[in-house]
Specification:
The protein is α/β, with parallel strands linked by helices and 304 residues long. Helix content is 45%, strand content 11%. The strands form 2 sheets. The chain has a 4-stranded parallel beta sheet, with helices on one face. Bound molecules: zinc ion.
């Protein structure tokens, strides 16, 4: 009898708690977490599986990831096969029916974004590690940041209708702040429109399109394939011919080849972060652009 009473009391106590429970959001990458945080505010908890300084193509699975996924109400992924090597098995193993592909709690953010580099012909292994559904590094364009944030806000509202107005308001506020920041970023970049750069991996097509730069080559001979001596020699010749003075790479690539290319061509090698958390102080979506545009414009000034 006491046991029954206790159960009854616990049910009574749990009911109001359950309705005030925050949505537990887990994301594959820090950028999706940052955008979810912008619109979700204190009505959600959010955590990323990958760290911002890690290569999002290759993340080593840890048991703690399964625990996160098991308790998630909503999983947000970048999609376009960026996480194909590590996320799908984790989602399956989590045994959490709420976040399986096709379930309400599974959100592929690429559906909201403008996607570049969609292959027009068949994709084969000979082309390297090409992303066959288009370029998944799409969050590095503030327009896509807006679109993704809106998509996440709508999803949160669908899952937690009581807070719909809150999420919408947070989105409007984010949209406004992006608009203001964008004016500043575009003004900083305007003098360098059309500047030629080389990048390590093809991670920056949305970024360069938005800010008017021109990528003329890659350190990787083909996407996902490490540098080769033959390709590096050709790249150096091309960079000299085209007067390319800036080479950008992500923090998780080996800097040996970029540095030797820099030494041979006089180009500055910049380690830019493609993600929130790529450096300790880069704690939100805005700071990614602040940081990268700061370093880029400095390098362009120095290499007029
Ligand atoms: Zn990639």
């Amino acid at each position: 009898m006491r046991r029954i009473l206790l159960c009854f009391l616990m049910t009574m106590l749990a009911a109001p708690l359950a309705s005030a429970k925050k949505l537990n959001v887990v994301t594959s990458t820090t950028d999706m977490a940052a955008l979810a945080q912008e619109v979700g505010g204190d009505k959600i908890t959010v955590e990323s599986i990958a760290r911002g300084y890690q290569d999002p193509h290759f993340v080593e699975a840890k048991p703690s990831f399964l625990l996160k996924l098991r308790n998630a109400d909503l999983l947000i992924s970048v999609g376009l096969q960026l996480e194909i090597g590590w996320l799908p098995p984790l989602v399956t193993q989590s045994g959490n029916p709420r976040i399986q592909p096709g379930a309400t709690g599974y959100l592929d953010a690429s559906q909201f974004a403008q996607i570049l580099d969609i292959p027009t012909g068949p994709v084969s292994r000979a082309m390297g590690d090409v992303h066959p559904l288009g370029n998944p590094h799409y969050w590095l364009d503030p327009d896509n940041g807006r679109r993704i944030a809106k998509g996440i806000a709508d999803k949160l509202a669908q899952m937690d209708p009581a807070n719909q107005a809150f999420f919408e308001q947070r989105y409007q506020d984010f949209e406004k702040r992006v608009g203001e920041a964008e004016k500043r970023w575009e003004a900083q970049m305007a003098p360098f429109h059309g500047r030629k750069i080389v990048t390590y991996h093809n991670s920056w097509p949305n970024f360069v399109r938005h800010f008017g730069l021109n990528v003329v080559g890659y350190v990787e001979p083909r996407p996902g394939i490490p540098p080769s001596p033959g390709h590096t020699v050709q790249l150096i010749q091309m960079m000299k011919r085209e007067n390319v003075k800036v080479l950008i790479m992500e923090p998780y690539f080996d800097s040996k080849t970029p540095n030797s290319i820099g030494a041979a061509t006089g180009a500055k090698v910049l380690v830019l972060t493609p993600s929130v958390g790529g450096e300790k102080d880069i704690t939100d979506y805005f700071k990614v652009f602040d940081y990268d545009i700061g370093l880029l414009t400095q390098a362009f000034h120095a290499t007029q």
